[in-house]
Amino acid sequence: MRTVFWAGFWVFLLDQLTKYLVVHVMNLALVQEVVVIPGLLHFRMAWNYGINFGLFASDGADATRWILIGVAALISGGVLFWVQRESPRWIGRVAAGLVIGGALGNVVDRFLYGAVADFVNVSCCGFNNPYAFNVADVAIFLGAAMLVFLPADKEA
């Protein structure tokens, strides 16, 4: 369980640190966009009131906010239960920590701001991607992919 805790802790810390920097230090909410690498990487402020790509967003409805906090808590609890019950290999515990740390990072945003702070925007080759994401989103995606595609055999 220590592996789950530390993986989740570092993801959560990095996520919250980057969000603090862009929201409060860079004041991206006011500036709206900072070009980091022209044509490839921009910091573009986006408040996500829903789930991925703004799905189920309803203009900051309070009920949606609390439902999504509850869903994140249930998923995190389910992943912890699975780890406790199945004792996966080290990589499975890291993956679980990525999912939990990312989910909790986005939950803190919903508590603090009422929405998730997304800011990383990647475009390429003339394609202008309208969506933004954050460190927590990347961690959740990677952790879930690892849990699905990597063998979760128990440790010997």
Automatic annotation (TrEMBL):
<comment type="function">
    <text>This protein specifically catalyzes the removal of signal peptides from prolipoproteins.</text>
</comment>
<feature type="transmembrane region" description="Helical">
    <location>
        <begin position="21"/>
        <end position="43"/>
    </location>
</feature>
<dbReference type="GO" id="GO:0004190">
    <property type="term" value="F:aspartic-type endopeptidase activity"/>
</dbReference>
<dbReference type="GO" id="GO:0005886">
    <property type="term" value="C:plasma membrane"/>
</dbReference>
<comment type="pathway">
    <text>Protein modification; lipoprotein biosynthesis (signal peptide cleavage).</text>
</comment>
<keyword id="KW-0378">Hydrolase</keyword>
<keyword id="KW-1003">Cell membrane</keyword>
<keyword id="KW-1133">Transmembrane helix</keyword>
<dbReference type="Pfam" id="PF01252">
    <property type="entry name" value="Peptidase_A8"/>
</dbReference>
<feature type="active site">
    <location>
        <position position="118"/>
    </location>
</feature>
<keyword id="KW-0812">Transmembrane</keyword>
<feature type="transmembrane region" description="Helical">
    <location>
        <begin position="131"/>
        <end position="150"/>
    </location>
</feature>
<protein>
    <recommendedName>
        <fullName>Lipoprotein signal peptidase</fullName>
        <ecNumber>3.4.23.36</ecNumber>
    </recommendedName>
</protein>
<keyword id="KW-0645">Protease</keyword>
<dbReference type="GO" id="GO:0006508">
    <property type="term" value="P:proteolysis"/>
</dbReference>
<keyword id="KW-0064">Aspartyl protease</keyword>
<keyword id="KW-0472">Membrane</keyword>
<comment type="similarity">
    <text>Belongs to the peptidase A8 family.</text>
</comment>
<feature type="transmembrane region" description="Helical">
    <location>
        <begin position="63"/>
        <end position="83"/>
    </location>
</feature>
<feature type="active site">
    <location>
        <position position="137"/>
    </location>
</feature>
<dbReference type="InterPro" id="IPR001872">
    <property type="entry name" value="Peptidase_A8"/>
</dbReference>
<feature type="transmembrane region" description="Helical">
    <location>
        <begin position="90"/>
        <end position="111"/>
    </location>
</feature>
